[in-house]
Write a structure and sequence with these properties.
The complex is a heterodimer of chains A (314) and B (327). Chain A has 314 residues and is mostly helical. Chain A has 12 helices and 2 strands, in the order H-H-H-H-H-H-H-E-E-H-H-H-H-H. A two-stranded antiparallel sheet of chain A has the order 1-2. In chain A, helix 5 packs antiparallel against helix 6, helix 5 runs parallel beside helix 8 and helix 7 packs antiparallel against helix 8. With 327 residues, chain B is of the alpha/beta class. An 8-stranded mixed β-sheet of chain B has the order 6-7-8-3-9-10-12-11, sandwiched between helices. The chains are: A mainly alpha (314), B alpha/beta (327).
Amino acid sequence: MSSLSSVASLAADTLDAPPLSLGELTYRRFRRHKMAIFGAIMLVLLAGYAFIPALFISEKYANYTDTGLRLNAPSLAHPFGTDTIGRDILARTIYGGQISILIGITAAVLEVLAGILIGATAGFYGGWIDAILMRLTEAMLNIPQIFLLIVMAKFFAGGIPDIHLLGRTFSGSVLVIMMIIGLTSWPYLARIVRAEFLSIKEREYILAARATGTPTYQIIFGHILPNCIAPIVVTATLGVANAITLEAYISFLGLGVRPPTATWGNMLEGAYNYIESAYWLWLFPGLLIVLIVLSINFLGDGLRDALDPRSRTV
Amino acid sequence: MNTLLEVTDLRTRFHTPEGTIFAVNGVSFTLHEAETLAVVGESGCGKSVTMMSLLGLIPIPPGEIVSGKALYHGKDLLHLSENELEHIRGKEIAMIFQDPMTSLNPVLTIHRQITESLRTHMGMDATKATQQAVHLLDLVGIPDAARRLNEYPHQFSGGMRQRVMIAMALACMPGLLIADEPTTALDVTIQAQIIELAMRMREQLGMAMIWITHDLGVVAGLAERVIVMYAGYIVEEARVDDLYEDPRHPYTLALLAALPRADRRRGQRLKSIPGAPPNLLVESKGCPFAPRCELVAEQCWAANPALRSVATDHRTACWFDVKGMQL
């Protein structure tokens, strides 16, 4: 009797095993990816580093200049040392981290929005709409992004006044940099989305959805888009890393975010004069940039593998 | 009996790089309320294209509806805007497709796919749509409907998916269900269940049905009238019993002769129709069936015979009277 009931309960358990949704499957595959887990944990720590200490250290302190303390080596009072005009580097990496992460995420969001909108329109409607949008995309791809970025940064710089938000003051250049990174990054994603749309819109289930009277916008966003979410998620993740690198690059050239607003990128500006004499000027912000970009790339790689529909491993 | 759908002179073409494909060439038929009409014919003879033209599901371009009228409740389906058609598709005329394995969106739950049309067409809120969806799944015989609602298509078998498709099609209680070879991709026992289900639904909802198939065995048990199509033309139209007992077109004769029969003597080979359906890239001048017809004569090459009435509710497009003939 007892053996019989155990058999029965075994069968019932197997049948009742909750269905694995796409999200659960992805999570299971993702968990196996050691580097991706490392990346995810590292990202949480870096975000914590940028946002939690800000509760105890004021931005005023991060921007406080004391020429008497210029170029001090790391000490107890200033664990990461001070910069060329005596600002505390630890405090500046904390507030700079916020801006760098903010720029990374906003630029990636802009990239995804523009990429989806343009790619989906081109892929779904085809014909001359597709032709025009894709020529535009190719034109954008033909111009090196960094070059475009420098020109736009130079062109728009200083045009925007400071922004006051949540009791804090941001240099208007933060907004400019976000916008131009986002608006120069979308062509790659647009091409991916278009290719996915071209293939998925011909599937039978899209015909079936049309046959039940589903409105066109619902077909595009409710039926086709969810089918290409995997490459979009991966591109968006890598887009954050790319935006942070680009911000660092352009700020390093002095065309990016204007001081006193700190970013990890503009802290490097001018540090090259002190490569040997004051290593702490470039070591800490540089290290943070390397860490965040690496972590995001690991995360992106993990997501790419986990979201791959051809991967059958559970 | 009231007329539900009246199609006259429907012509659909596809303009491809290889040339124009004459897919549907002047198809006319009527469908009465609560009637079941079967459309039979070989693959590629325009059955599906005819139905998809009616619902505006033909991609334009490359497709083009050259002429025709399709009156449904007094509205001409062929001249409605996309917006107006969206209100008819799924609500008044529903369609189910051949392959249930590919007709459901793999990344959306069954719940989402069933409730969608309830919410668009019937304006139901989420809770009510969910209740209705459970009810519909129950109705089409899916056990444990409430739980299965939240599953994804890959967790359903082929037969179950076709049941889901039928549930989706019936969601808004349409007046007409177009079934495009709904059992072709299923194995025989499941086929029987799906047909039985469709018949039960038809009785319960009192809806009309157009059943596209190339299985004459299915037709006999299901339909009241049959249309035989060949190369984009209707070649014969009759009540189902008349078609089997008194076929009037050589193509119908040949199709019936090609049916495997249990009472046929062993060792005898199944009779087949020689050749293949014609190339639709050329608009045929004569009868499209002439190249494969055993009764072909001079005039068959010269002109294509129009549909003519040979008995009550019985029309055929042949120059000859093939009454009582055997192939």
